[in-house]
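Researcher: Next sequence.
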Amino acid sequence: MSTACSSLLNNPQIELLSSDDFAEIVEVWEASVRATHHFLNEKEIAFYKPLVLKYALPSMKVWGIRIGEKLAGYMAVSSYKVEMLFIAPEFIGKGLGKHFLNFALNKLHIYLIDVNEENPAALGFYQHMGYKIISRDDVDGNGRPHPILHLEYQPLEK
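Model: Next structure:
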């Protein structure tokens, strides 16, 4: 990794994305899902992909981090919850998720996020960041048998 790229990872700039970025956002979504959501099969990925593009993204504010010209990750939020957080596979584990969550907490004052129960790495990351499970649904928002855990940021008491 170049020094310039490494520097960008240490201090990434979060920018508000627009509908002009949706095609690139969906590319990051699909690559990230393939790398992390091993519980989804090809048919399910094909089911969710147009929903993300046509319904989810237009209904939310979407924030992104670019490394050079490449969209390295994004976070989509409603007024009260982080609805989506996806990092391109080559940038997973480089601290971008932490930057997005800190931005959500400190700038947007958003403390809620959901995670697929079948994605233990993501759950572990959120728990490491101070999120606690507050409830669980047996199915996802589309009625599919992928349990969803609802999390809330709960900082350690001092």
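Model: The first helix runs from residue 3 to 10. The chain has five helices and seven strands.
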